[in-house]
Fold this protein.
Amino acid sequence: MNKKIILIVALLIIGVLSRIIPHPPNVTAMIAIALLASHSFKNKWVAMLIPLTGMWISDLMINNYLYAGYYDKFMFFSSGSLWVYGGILFAVLIGKVLIKHIKLSTVFLSSLSASFFFFIITNFGVWLSSMIYPKSLLGLVECYTLAVPFFGNALIGDLIYSVVLFTSYSLVFSNRFELNTAGNTKINQ
């Protein structure tokens, strides 16, 4: 099977599993997947669809199975989906701009940047669309302030997942490692 197809399937599985198995709040692979997809696929539509599809599939499972009791009908999208998906698309853009070659410094910088902008975008959406916070500068500050502990988790998770995914990708897609048709792994010397 083509390595790119295997990569797409692997990223979708990793993304979905990282969101549905028990995990600390906001520690998922979605930002790392957006960054890796943006680097791995020159076609911007493929790069965008991979993390969005993983997010949507896991949202379907979470909203309609794990949290089904909170909704009175089947949920294709939740109320904050636009902001979350927008944050993921911004992560893809960051990856396209910052990751020309895989180096620890570029992966680290892109992961930090994507985490920060995801935090800014999604919490602005929470402030704007919910009734929890007053629609004032003070309400916006309160929204961001109360979200800081979740940002710490997201930042650590995004960095760890980014390093693991980019390292794995580099190993598999280097000339020293190949999957032969028999399904065995071969390392070239």
